[in-house]
Amino acid sequence: MADMNRALSEWRGEILHLVRQRPEEHSPFEAGKTPVPVSGKVIGARELELMTEAVLDAWLTTGRFNDRFEKALGEYLNVRHVLTVNSGSSANLLALAALTSPELGERAIRPGDEVITPAANFPTTIAPILQIGAVPVFVDIELSTWNADIALLEQALSPRTKAVVLAHSLGNPFDAAAVKRFCEQHGLWFVEDACDALGATLGGRHVGTFGDFGTLSCYPAHHVTMGEGGALYTNDAALARLARSFRDWGRHCHCRTGQDNACGHRFDGQYGELPQGYDHKYVYSHVGYNLKITDIQAACGAAQMERLPFFVKARRENWRFLRARLDACPWLEFESELPGAEASWFGFPILLKENAPGTRLELLRHLDAHKIGTRLLFAGNAVRQPFLQGQRFRVASELSNTGIVMNRGFWIGVFPGLTEEMLDYAAQTLLDYFKGKA
Ligand SMILES: Cc1ncc(COP(=O)(O)O)c(C=O)c1O
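The joint structure predicted for all components is written out below.
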């Protein structure tokens, strides 16, 4: 037995040693030939090392690396409860599903209740509202941040309003403290979609921690990646317990994966109309999902968390570089941060001025032809998207700024994989478009 353990440990050591020796990739930048993407993963030997460890553990479902990631994220955000899930979309779904729990009594979101959200949004910030049978109520955004105009929340209220779901678009914080006050005043739930905004702060406090729930995406485009993955977090133990139930098949039991009878009452309870002593592991109090991740994903996320401060710093520096480089261009408008806010930029948002020469389409084609990646503000005006046709929703304000960003807004990359040379080329190519046009 001792020999076998030694052999296994040596075998493991040799594999990990090899993985740690992975050479760094580096290919020289060639302007116009090398793509300048909007986003991308930045992973290296450390991520491969931890993922290999997770593979060699062969535990596969959420395990020690999941614990490590949840702890690291909780400490970084200064938040008490973190639950990993298989995407940012799942995190949004889980937040809203948890808020339908009958355990919340009168405050539970029921079919036909209303949830306020901006019309300029990522589709799966809106979709969970419909998935729980609620009605999205759309408000306009501000041009200075591309976030919901929170002055419009009041006019979106109705007797059926139960929640506000707002995203910190492209990593630039909205005034989450003011939205929290508004929600408290009106007895509403507040979900902060911080999928784009890991590392962004408001008055020194992390965004996502003002609301009842915050959400994170770990898709490769995002600040830290697991390939597919995400997290839901809260400071409220009761909400965390509900979310855990919905995440883990709807079960009533709180045993961790691989654990049995943590409460010591596995065969003691009486639930619903089940027989006395029915195994608590198989008692379900919610109509749940299974949204968990594998430990291999968690291992990648755990390695990424070690580099997060560098990632956030690089995104901010890249944003500032582009801002300075494009400042003199009379045809472009840029976002600003609210007082006390520090963005953790997902991208570099740009608004083409109304009187600018040319069109956005032409400009995007010009950038594309020069291998510079661009993206729009997600679904634009969601009300005009096919997925909302035939669905129940309400429009609570004019959506004029939403229309402006849908028609004239776009963003380019700031992720840490971009070098100064690439950013400089992206900025120069943008400026070149206007040369001789005015
Ligand atoms: C604001 C926002 N919310 C939610 C999501 C969904 O995250 P995921 O792709 O991990 O499902 C995204 C994805 O980019 C996003 O930008």
